[in-house]
Amino acid sequence: MSEDRLLFSCEDPALWRRIYKSYWRVVELKSMAKGKKPGKLLPLDKWYQDELPKAIASRPQRFLTHPELLKVMEWKLTRGKFRPRLQQLVATNPSETVEKCTKKAFSLLPDIQAAITELSSLKALGPATASAVLAAGSPELAAFMADEAVESIPYLKPVQYTAKHYSLYLQRVVERSCSLNEADSEKNWTPHKVELCLWAWAVAGQLQPSLLQELCKEESPEEAVESSRRPTKRQRTN
């Protein structure tokens, strides 16, 4: 697959796995990119991807605390477009309201749209930030509405920060995760995992296209075996 094509159209789980494994390399590239505070994104992303899901899962009922919601917003703004006003607004939500609202949102799952609507009642939370909350606590159901991931899917540009557009995006991501699980013996693809791959592909294409070239040229063990079985040019002409 050529690196200038859309990853979303690729049905080869081996390439998707290689992209997923390169995720942290791409985060480091993004963290050091011009316009960002060097090194700030990487620890925030590790917190969002690793620590926050464990904290949510450890509770009898899933919810986010007020400090966690503030940090989710900080992560989102550091990773994407920085809007300081949103950070200020989300901080005005009372702690009790944050816990009550996020707890109710998780209880509404698997109805994603109902959960998004509930979270959107909090100040400064639109569908994109709401999706970040849900993806942290239910990666098997939700995907974060990252601009780069949405724009990587045909017919979803430009990004519209509405519940309807998120629904269209999530539907496509869920479909791709299902198709990958059908083709991949590991069968561990989730909407959130697909979203991470789409983001990594898009950002690497912007910051270091050579990384995509490298990943596209790599062969999995299965691909190497298949290549070895193909007849050589001399064998074909004999």
Q: How many domains make up the 3D coordinates?
A: 1
How much β-strand is present in the residues?
A: under 5%
Gyration radius, to the nearest Å? 20 Å
Q: Portion of residues in helices?
A: 55-70%
The largest sheet, given as strand count, sense and whether it forms a barrel, is: none
**Mean of all residue-level pLDDT scores:** 89
Helix-and-strand structural type: mainly alpha
Give the CA-CA distance, first to last residue. Answer: 30 Å
Listing every helix as H and every strand as E from the N terminus to the C terminus, the arrangement reads: HHHHHHHHHHHHHH
**Backbone shape:** globular
DSSP summary: helix tally: 14
State the low-pLDDT regions, or none. Answer: 223-238
DSSP E strands, number: 0
